[in-house]
Amino acid sequence: MKFRFLIASAILASSAHAWAAEVSLSAALAQGAETSPRVQAAKAKADAAEARARQAGASPNPELSLEVENFAGSGAFQGLRSTETTLALSQRIELGGKRSARLAVATSERDFAFLSLRAAEADLARDIRIAHAELRGAEDRAMLARENAGQAVELARTARLLVEVGRDPPLRQLRAEAVLAEAQAEEARSFGELLAARRFLADLIGSSDPDLSAMVADGEVAPGALPPATPSLDEQLAAAERDAAQARIRVARAEAVPDVTASGGVRRFGEGRETAFIAGISIPLPFRDRNKGNIEAAQADSLASEASLRLASINARRTQHDARMMLGAANARVAVLSGPSLAQAAEAVRLASIGYGAGKFSLLELLDAQSALTTAKTALIEARLDRARALAALIRAQARAGN
């Protein structure tokens, strides 16, 4: 009873899908880019990096100080007669190129953040392309499973009639009923996968449609190969990280140069009401801390970023090559599987069904024909899905900040 309920639920889901509004790949990409939390988070981080880059160019604020001396003491310093009041303004002067080095780091980090935003958008687009294709494939597999279940029902009915008239032994009816049970189980499984694929795409694009359906893709054109020495998005990211690491070396070296603080002001003597100007300058003595450890750490980080850039270049070339090869292989499979062999397999099933009913073919021959057709259709569905995955991988591998 429970199994029948699952089958009924699957059939109900398929019936609802028949009237579901289809979403095209372009619409899914646009909706996902607008609502995706990962893109929104990357955008916020890029805005934060932009604000930090603006702040990095700011100079130190001047300091205003007020000092009151020689009051409320004893003897000649009782009360306020000997009070001395000093109003001074001091300014820390950055030396060693600290401001320019700090600005270079912030600018590189800003560039990295905006490249990360572009990478998040490219990753999301790849995931949506794959999820859209997987939903389309799940729909095709579910419809194929439904067709097979319908054929199995008809086959079981025919086998029962043939057994009743004595043309086939009871074993044939048992075999047909076993095929029906397998087909119904596969139908339930395929529709479960359909619901999961539908939910995954809906989450990616922020859709609340419970009957989300994937429109058949128009067939995106594969991008052409990047010109030689053209960096991919991943290489641009690694280069931006390297630039930031190199800029941090400048900051570490600049921090080793002590800053000068200059001050000037006016002092007023309470007893005689006289005033005088004061001036001063202070500078730390770099005897103990010359920031050597931070300089060496920044240099090591820079070497690591250089290696990461080389690795990113190797991975980018390999990923592009592999994706293009997989796309070519998938296109070839689709061309072969969608050719005359599919129509021939369908015709073989039609003839075997007629022949079985007329007593010219056995049940096993009909089952073999149906299995061959199912295998061919399933292989075509998988080939189309592999083509979509390879195309999504290639588009992502060749993404650049400027496109």
Give the SSE map:
Layout (H helix, E strand, L loop, with lengths): L1 H17 L3 E2 L1 H11 L1 H20 L6 E7 L14 E10 L4 H67 L5 H36 L7 E2 L18 H23 L4 E10 L5 E8 L9 H46 L2 H18 L5 H35 L6
Parallel strand pairs: 1-4
Antiparallel strand pairs: 2-3, 3-5, 5-6
Helix pairs in contact: 1-5, 2-4, 3-4, 4-5, 4-6, 4-9, 6-7, 7-9, 8-9
Description of the structure:
By secondary structure, the chain is α+β, with helices and mostly antiparallel strands. It has a single domain, classed as Up-down Bundle (Outer membrane efflux proteins (OEP)). The protein has nine helices and six strands; from the N terminus they run αβααββααβαββααα. It has helices at residues 2-18, 25-35, 37-56, 98-164, 170-205, 233-255, 292-337, 340-357, 363-397; strands at 22-23, 63-69, 84-93, 213-214, 260-269, 275-282. The chain has a four-stranded antiparallel β-sheet, with no helix packed on it. It has a two-stranded parallel ribbon with strand order 1-4. 30% of the residues are buried. Residues 1-8 and 10-19 have low confidence and may be disordered. InterPro entries: MdtP/NodT-like (IPR010131), OMP_efflux (IPR003423). Keywords: Signal.
